[in-house]
Amino acid sequence: MKILMALIKKEFLQIIRDPSSIIIAFVLPLLSILIYMYGVNLDSVKVTLGIKNDDPNSEISTLVKSFGHSKYVNSIVFNNEKELTEAITRSKIKGAVIIPNDFSTKLSRGQSGDLLIITDGSEVNTANYVQSYSTSIANGWLNTSKFRRLANPVVVNPELRIWYNQDLNSHYFILPGSISVTMTLIGILLTALVVAREWERGTMEALLSTQVRKIDIVLGKYIPYFTLGMISMMFNVFLCVGVFKVPFRGNFLVLFSVSALFLFTLLGVGLTISSKLKNQFLASQVSLGIGFLPALLLSGLMFPINSMPKFFQILTMILPPRYFITFIESEFMAGGVNSIRLINAFFLTILGLFLFALVYKSTDMRLKN
Predict the structure, then answer these.
(1) For 254-272, what is each residue's pLDDT tens digit?
(2) CA distance linking residue 1 with residue 248, whole number of Å
(3) What fold characterizes domain 47-150?
(4) DSSP bridge partners of 117
């Protein structure tokens, strides 16, 4: 126990003396959350549309005005089709709505009126916005115009109820999810440099010449960086809940308990990398490659897992961020669902114990030529 406590003390002193550890643990989360808060936005955006009306009916002019009254559309009226086409080509507008000259005639006969909606397919998300906004505005106008009684009756009148995120604010799930990405980078990067740094500086040789046991070395690396990582986790949660006012409906004790399992797993990944490579530069590059990128792209934060090819869906099963993102978004948004808590905690525990065993096995206790 004295040897273990001495190793833990040594690591804490190393953390205090090494500003990079503090930067990784506290400055990196702050920058990351600021980027996700102000740089990433999945909410509905305002698009600029060109409107060309070829129908002389005075009632149709109210449809043109409806586009200008929408908070999601900035409309520009064009009288010349060539100018409209040129505006789309030069990206001055993101789409266009052309009202044909027989639009009102068809509606007065009880027929479907055809609108030509042009979108710029080079920006797929914006093109989807143009299509959905234009269709919604046209349908809304029809329900209030004199053509309403001539159109087909609405069979279903839906009533919208939004659960968990009534404001439809994408930051309410992006920021909790970003904690998973940030903690993945912190947990892996902090420990990926630890053992590699010992080998590069020659302190590992001095350590192996003592009577220290392998378990003491492993725990001496786990405990200090686990403590630092949990403090960083608390800092992340404080930024989300206290500074950016993201609603939290779960239980803080459960949140930090599962976070501890998640961090325990990440430390195993980082120490395995560090033990195998024994080079700080290579360890940091591999950490970014197998830590940050999969956490961002394959965890389900940005892209739904069930929409991925089957191979990548299977690959995500060995990625710790997949389980933590599901848990933390549920904990923040829904108030915690026991089945989600248990299944994700179970998989994180299995992965954490497996990686701990791998770290123990990978730790060399003798010098090699």
Answers:
(1) 999 999 999 999 999 988 8
(2) 40
(3) abc type-2 transporter like fold (3.40.1710)
(4) 97
29: nearest Cα among 187, 191, 245, 222: 187
HEC letters along 141-162: HHHHCCCHHHCCCCCCCCCCCC
DSSP string, 45-68: --EEEEEEE----TTHHHHHHHHH
At 25, is the pLDDT very low, low, confident or very high (cuts 50, 70, 90)? confident
Query: pTM of the prediction?
Result: 0.78
Which tokens is 327 given?
């848990």
Nearest to 333 by CA among 201, 164, 142: 164
- Domain ranges for the chain, please list them: 2-40+169-362, 47-150
User: If 0-12 CB within 10 Å is exposed, 13-18 middle and 19+ buried, where does residue 223 land?
Assistant: middle
313, containing H or E segment: helix 310-315
With beta carbons less than 8 A apart as the criterion, state whether 176 and 250 touch. no
DSSP output for 232-299: HHHHHHHIIIIIS-----S-HHHHHHHHHHHHHHHHHHHHHHHHHH--HHHHHHHHIIIIIHHHHHSS
